Amino acid sequence: MNRITELLGIQYPIFQGAMAQISRHQLVSAVSNAGGLGILASGGLTADEVRDEIRKTKALTDKPFAVNLMLMMDNVAEIVEVLIEEGVKIVTTGAGTPKPYMPRLKEAGVIVIPVIPSVKLALKMQELGCDAVVAEGMEAGGHIGEMTTMPLTRQVAAHLDIPVVCAGGIADGHGFVAATALGAEGVQMGTVFLAAEECPISAAYKQEILISVDTSTVVTGRKFGAPVRCLRNQLTTKYLELENQNISRHELEAMTMGALTRAVEDGDVDNGSLMAGQIAGLVSTIRPAKAIIEDVMTEAKAVLEHLSL
Question: What is the pTM of this model?
Answer without folding.
Answer: 0.91
